[in-house]
């Protein structure tokens, strides 16, 4: 079965680049094609299914001065969804989340109206937070929208680091988790009093990490700096940590997966604050349970047809 995934991977963001690895682990029997959410490509003629996800790809805001009704991002995403509708192949949203304009507020869904038509048309919708589910229900009027923890909770690299190889505290910079922040510096002084080593782990795209990690290296010259680690190295670093302070969503995801204590600050991004921490991370498998129910049955090959003929004869 040939399945195309259109998600947020491909920019160097470690969390988003984890999704294709999870898809490959969960669906080894299928041929998977991965597309970047903002780079439309011609879809194969023999495509059997289209999946939008994973990641925070459901948004409709662009740069200042751009048409607020349909952002460039939304038009790119519409390219894929329209293709699936025209071809009449099953399609839907998997392990997705909504994103909001920085000045719009997390309760302002007005600029998401362009998505309403497609949310109504999708064969399945699985979202990574209960808040996202309520937004989708409001926009679409559907009651069959499914919540499950982010699909990246299922990521299992081949090597994740020995549990007895504990290194100290790991900081994952983004937003207020940075080398200038007074509270972060307060935490680091406390950890330093216990002799704990410090690692700054860049899990964002290079454009987001560069200045933050450069500043961390200048202010904390004895700290280890890990830039552009990739999912496996990031997962292993967090697995070997004693404690994590993260400004990145998937820093929290990897910490929970490995049972490593972590904290996020009060004004962390929306998707971190709305994470359901009471839900078992293993429930992320629900995304794929829903997906498999919509995968079309494959046609038997000539070899399989021949084998059936021999059995009946």
Model description:
This protein is an alpha/beta fold. It has helices spanning 14-26, 72-87, 116-121, 130-140, 182-192, 206-219, 230-239, 249-258, 270-273, 286-294, 302-312; strands at 2-7, 31-36, 49-52, 55-58, 91-98, 124-127, 146-147, 168-172, 197-201, 224-226, 243-246, 262-263. The strands form two sheets. Strands 1, 2, 3, 4, 5, 6 and 7 form a seven-stranded parallel sheet that branches. β5, α3 (116-121) and β6 form a beta-alpha-beta unit. The protein starts with a strand and ends with a helix.
Quick tags:
alpha/beta, Rossmann fold, 2 domains, seven-stranded parallel sheet, five-stranded parallel sheet, 11 helices, 37% helix, globular
Helices and strands in order:
Layout: E1 2-7, H1 14-26, E2 31-36, E3 49-52, E4 55-58, H2 72-87, E5 91-98, H3 116-121, E6 124-127, H4 130-140, E7 146-147, E8 168-172, H5 182-192, E9 197-201, H6 206-219, E10 224-226, H7 230-239, E11 243-246, H8 249-258, E12 262-263, H9 270-273, H10 286-294, H11 302-312
Parallel strand pairs: 1-2, 1-3, 3-5, 4-5, 5-6, 6-7, 8-9, 8-11, 9-10, 11-12
């Amino acid at each position: 079965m040939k399945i195309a995934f259109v998600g947020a991977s491909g920019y160097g963001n470690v969390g988003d680049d984890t999704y294709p690895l999870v898809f490959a682990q969960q669906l080894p029997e299928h041929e998977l094609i991965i597309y970047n959410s903002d780079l439309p490509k011609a879809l194969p003629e023999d495509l059997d299914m289209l999946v939008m996800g994973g990641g925070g790809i459901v948004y409709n805001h662009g740069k200042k001065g751009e048409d607020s009704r349909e952002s460039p991002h939304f038009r790119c995403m519409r390219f894929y969804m329209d293709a699936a509708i025209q071809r009449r192949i099953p399609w839907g949203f998997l392990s997705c989340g909504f994103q909001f304009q920085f000045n719009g507020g997390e309760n302002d869904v007005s600029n998401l109206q362009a998505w309403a038509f497609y949310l109504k048309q999708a064969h399945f919708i699985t979202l990574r937070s209960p808040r996202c589910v309520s937004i989708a229900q409001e926009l679409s009027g559907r009651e069959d929208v499914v919540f499950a923890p982010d699909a990246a909770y299922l990521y299992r690299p081949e090597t994740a680091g020995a549990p007895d190889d504990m290194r100290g505290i790991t900081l994952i910079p983004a937003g207020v988790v940075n080398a200038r922040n007074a509270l972060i510096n307060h935490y680091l002084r406390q950890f330093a009093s216990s002799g704990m080593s410090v690692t700054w782990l860049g899990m964002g795209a290079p454009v987001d990490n560069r200045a933050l990690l450069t500043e961390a290296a200048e202010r904390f010259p004895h700290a280890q700096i890990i830039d552009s680690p990739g999912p496996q190295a990031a997962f292993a670093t967090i697995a070997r940590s004693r404690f994590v302070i993260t400004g990145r969503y998937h820093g929290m995801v990897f910490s929970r997966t490995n049972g490593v204590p972590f904290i996020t600050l009060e004004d962390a991004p929306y998707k971190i604050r709305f994470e359901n921490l009471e839900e078992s991370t293993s429930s992320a498998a629900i995304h794929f349970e829903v997906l498999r129910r919509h995968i079309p049955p494959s046609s038997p090959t000539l070899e399989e047809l021949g084998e059936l003929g021999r059995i009946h004869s």
